[in-house]
Amino acid sequence: MAGQWFALPNLFKASKNEGYQIARSGDEVIQFKNEQSWTFKIIPKTATINALVTLSLKPETVHSEIQHKLFLKQIGM
To answer: Which residues neighbour 45 within 8 Å (Cβ) at sequence distance 6 or greater?
Structure first.
């Protein structure tokens, strides 16, 4: 999944977040479905990636609203 955030933007001309849905949110994990479209630099074709992302939360920050707020800000909520 790290490639989607770090490598793919270097290979593609454009990226569009088509949507996301929170699948699970709790004290120990946040899980969401994400749909992302990528347009190739050289050929005029778009590929769409559907992913299920699971983030494990640090036990010592389970009750920290800051961690949840930062995550939600990163995915555009």
So the answer is: 39
Direct distance between the N- and C-terminal alpha carbons of the chain, in angstroms, rounded to an integer? 20
Which pair of tokens denotes residue 19? 């949507």
Residue that wins the pLDDT comparison between 37 and 68: 37
> Could you tell me how many residues make up the chain?
77
Token digits for 23?
């699948």
Taking only the tens place, the pLDDT of each residue in 42-70 is 888 999 989 998 888 777 766 666 656 66
Q: What is the pTM of this model?
A: 0.62
Measured distance CA(50)–CA(68) in Å, rounded: 23
DSSP H helices, 1-77, are 2-6, 8-11, 65-74
